[in-house]
Amino acid sequence: MLRLAVVIPALNAAATLPATLAALVSADAIEREMVVVDGGSDDGTPALAETLGARVIAASKGRGGQLAAGAAATEAPWLLFLHADTRLQAGWSGDVLAFAGDAANRDKAAVFRFALDDRADGARRLERLVAWRTRVLGLPYGDQGLLISRALYDDIGGFRALPLMEDVDIVRRLGRTRLLTLPSAAVTSAKRYQGSYFWRSARNVTCLCLYFVGVPPRWLVRLYG
Fold first, then answer.
1. What is the residue range of 94's domain?
2. Which of 67, 70, 116 is nearest to 89 (CA)?
């Protein structure tokens, strides 16, 4: 039985959180704990999460700090970090068990394939771009989840309390050779892309480039939206 804590940072996520948590319920051979870290929601997210079986803790708004707080609140030997608008595809638990059960992966981490809940051509183009970025550059984002052992998470210093780019920061410390992509997908809401896949993607790339040249994440939050 694999002990796994799923840590989900949330802020006004009542519309998407039920599907995210529901996808986690069926997990054979996994002793699963769901930890929702609320950053000050005013839409009933904490109460909703509790009714759906999650443990809720409060933290200051900011995804990096929320993720770190969630990891600190559990003693599970394996951690899965997941966004509140992302639901894992059926079969995810088998992929997690296979990865965690392979001793060769104790010094590695894994992410899921990126997918969007939209039939638009723009969604498929973006999925292909993300697959390339993950494979070639070793830069998956947080909406692909992150599966990592507690030992490795602690060894690299965990999530830093960044308001943005916390996902890029931690995977850069891991390095491309220690990141694997699991077969199943993490299906994320396409709401923020609908209307203009191009401009939203361009804004994301701009934020990434500015971060790489040294612009502090706290300055990028307004541009990211």
1. 2-194
2. 116
